[in-house]
Amino acid sequence: MATKKHFNSFEEMLSGSDVPVLVDFYAEWCGPCKMMGQILEQVNAQLNGRIRVVKIDTEKYTELASQYRIEALPTLMLFKQGQPVDKIEGVLQAPQLVQHLQTLI
């Protein structure tokens, strides 16, 4: 999950993905956001290749946070074929998150 890739734009990354993209909108200063890192690793392992997990720092990418109306942290958004299909605010444990995502992917 810790692979860093560079894209020209957020939209390019979303549209270029062959699997749904789960975006974790976070900030370095956010305690609950830090908890989500380990949870997302578990989710990614359980869904093994069925989703791509991407982290977006809302402090660095304020325009994306505004565009997608990120008002609470952490916020997870699931994108399919470049379009947002689900938004989850706050911390969910891995089993609940996996169960929720499986209904959408």
UniProtKB/TrEMBL annotation:
Gene3D superfamilies from the UniProt entry: Glutaredoxin
Site (Deprotonates C-terminal active site Cys): 24
Marked site (Contributes to redox potential value) residue numbers: 31-32
Keywords annotated in UniProt: Disulfide bond, Electron transport, Redox-active center, Transport
Disulfide cysteine pairs (residue numbers): 30-33
Molecular function terms from GO: protein-disulfide reductase activity
Protein name: Thioredoxin
Lineage, opening ranks: Bacteria, Bacillati, Cyanobacteriota, Cyanophyceae, Nostocales
